[in-house]
Each structure stands twice: as structure tokens, then as C-alpha cells.
């Protein structure tokens, strides 16, 4: 058995911030989950639907691995990413750093992980790996999935090699801090501004605040969009609240990030942005609740109420990002 020493196997709400936390704490940098999410400019929005999809998807963050790239670039960390189509090389890419005493991040499809409680395909899942033996690998996943967990080497190889939406080719990565620990506080305002710029200038209408507006227009049609509303609508709401989002489609994480920033930086625009995202987080939870009720009851009135709130959320988040962009 090979186990990296001094690993704090702490599961958090979101998979990518959980893995980042493991890798960075091992390097000596311990940041809260909201701070990791915010410094990585992780907040976004997408309304995703196509003929090939069984049901629309509401996403609240940037694309998988963009958060990691954003965070490491902003803090001046060394991010070494390996990808390969070779199963042998894929194993070498994780075993070599672990043998050298360093944990590794992995992007994979969680469907194949034996400990995973919900057997769905999602190729953008991220875990930290800190050990292995002849049969199993030792991982850190979200608190919801058990925190410190293990799965067989066979299942891990399948998860890493899976092809489909958002998958990567056996992607693994390590992070190294510079000789002098980065002054991450100096990067708070640039991270907030970059996130606001991207949110406000989204290139297509199903992204950013315009995407929330599109969701407001489409959600009332959801009972007609599905053949199984009692399954699909509560499932959509569950993904918004509990599927690694930290609640309120990642808005609770961003609210808490801004709350931490307010304690560090005295700025009226920052305080205003925090207040607006606190309001938005509450409203997103209300939307999820109404979507659940619509699926359970078949009453379109709940979706119409959700639509009204989504119109408000588009305005609130646009206003919040316009204020935060001025920092």
C-alpha cells in the first residue's frame, strides 16, 4: 500500500473545490471552500437543452476544470496536467506523483465509481487521489459522497477512460506552490471582476444573466417537455440544491465568498454585491422548491411562479455583477 502522508481528507460541498482543497492544503495553503470557488471565478449560469437530452439542465458554474485553471493561474501556482489515451500511461501519471508523496487530482465520469450513490454519467467530476494498493485506490470526494472513500483500480480506470460530454482523456493534475506562498488576498478583486465580466458579456443567450432570462421563459413549458414530470422535475431541483452545488445553484457558495471578502476589504460596492447575492441564493432555493412541487402535483402554476422569480433573478444577478465589476 502506498499512501501520501499528511493528507487532510476533508470532503466539501463541490467536487472540484474539494479536490483543490486537498492538493493545496498538502502544499501548505488552506483556503475555505467559498474562497477557492471565488478566487477561481467559478460562478456562471447555463440553460442547456437539445433534442438529444431527456430534460433541460440548469448549470451554475463555469465549465469543469476552468475553475482549477483560473485559480492556479491567478495565484501563480504551477499546474501540471497530464492526458493520455493509454491505460498504462494513465496509471503511471497518477502512481508516479503519489509514490513521490504528492496527491493527484483526477477528472473522470463518476458513474463508474463504486461508492457513488447516484449512478448517472457525469464526465466533469473531479476527485483527489492520495493512495493505492493492489486492488483499490484511495480518494477524497465531496462530503455528500463520503469524503475519504475508495474504489477499485478497475472502476477508476473505467471512470477515467469514459468518453462523452465533458469528459477528458484520463486527465490528472498536480499543483505546486512557488517558493514564497502567494498573497491570495491581492487576487480577490481581480477574481471578482473577471467573473463579473464573463457573466455580463456571455456570447450566447443561454449563458449568464441572459441565460437566466431564457430559463424564465422556458420553465413554464417543462410539464409539456417531459413524459415523467414526477421524476424529471424533482430531479432537476435536486441537481440545483444538492448535487455538489453547495445549495442555490452555487449562489450560496458565491454569497459566502463575498461575505468573507467583506471582512477583508472595506468597499461599498463589495457589500452591495454581497447583499444582492444573499438575496439571489434565497430565491434560487425558492425556485427549486417550486419546480419540485410542480413535478409532484402536475400544477403548472408552480412553474409560472418559478418563472416570475427567475425574471427577478436575472435582474438581481445582472445588477450584482454590474456593481462588482466596478471594484
Automatic annotation (TrEMBL):
Family matches, as InterPro entries: BtrH_N (IPR026935), DUF4872 (IPR032369)
Domain DUF4872: 155-324
Positions of the Butirosin biosynthesis protein H N-terminal domain: 14-142
Protein name as catalogued: DUF4872 domain-containing protein
A Pfam family reported for this protein in Swiss-Prot or TrEMBL: BtrH_N
Amino acid at each position: 500500500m502506498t499512501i501520501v502522508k499528511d493528507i487532510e481528507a476533508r470532503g466539501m460541498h463541490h467536487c472540484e473545490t474539494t479536490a483543490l482543497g486537498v492538493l493545496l492544503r498538502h502544499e501548505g495553503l488552506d483556503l475555505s471552500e467559498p474562497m477557492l470557488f471565488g478566487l477561481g471565478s467559478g460562478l456562471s449560469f447555463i440553460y442547456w437543452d437539445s433534442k438529444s437530452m431527456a430534460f433541460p439542465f440548469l448549470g451554475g458554474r463555469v465549465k469543469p476544470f476552468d475553475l482549477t485553471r483560473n485559480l492556479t493561474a491567478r495565484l501563480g501556482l504551477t499546474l501540471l496536467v497530464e492526458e493520455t489515451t493509454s491505460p498504462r500511461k494513465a496509471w503511471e501519471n497518477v502512481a508516479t506523483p503519489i509514490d513521490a508523496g504528492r496527491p493527484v487530482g483526477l477528472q473522470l465520469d463518476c458513474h463508474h465509481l463504486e461508492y457513488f450513490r447516484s449512478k448517472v454519467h457525469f464526465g466533469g467530476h473531479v476527485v483527489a487521489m492520495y493512495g493505492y494498493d493492489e486492488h483499490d485506490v484511495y480518494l477524497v470526494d465531496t462530503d455528500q459522497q463520503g469524503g475519504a472513500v475508495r474504489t477499485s483500480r478497475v472502476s477508476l480506470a473505467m471512470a477515467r477512460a469514459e468518453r462523452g460530454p465533458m469528459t477528458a482523456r484520463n486527465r490528472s493534475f498536480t499543483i505546486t506552490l512557488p517558493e514564497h506562498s502567494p498573497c491570495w488576498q491581492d487576487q480577490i478583486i481581480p477574481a471578482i471582476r473577471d467573473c463579473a465580466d464573463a457573466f455580463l458579456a456571455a456570447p450566447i443567450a443561454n449563458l449568464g444573466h441572459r441565460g437566466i432570462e431564457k430559463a424564465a421563459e422556458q420553465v413554464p413549458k417543462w410539464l409539456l417537455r417531459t413524459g415523467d414530470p414526477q421524476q424529471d422535475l424533482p430531479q432537476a431541483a435536486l441537481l440545483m440544491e444538492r448535487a455538489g452545488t453547495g445549495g442555490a445553484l452555487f449562489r450560496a457558495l458565491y454569497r459566502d465568498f463575498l461575505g468573507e471578502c467583506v471582512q477583508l476589504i472595506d468597499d461599498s460596492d463589495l457589500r452591495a454585491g454581497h447583499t444582492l447575492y444573499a438575496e439571489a441564493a434565497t430565491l434560487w432555493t425558492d425556485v427549486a422548491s417550486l419546480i419540485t412541487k410542480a413535478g409532484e402535483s402536475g400544477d403548472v402554476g408552480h412553474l409560472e411562479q418559478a418563472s416570475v422569480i427567475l425574471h427577478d433573478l436575472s435582474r438581481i444577478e445582472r445588477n450584482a455583477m454590474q456593481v462588482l465589476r466596478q471594484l
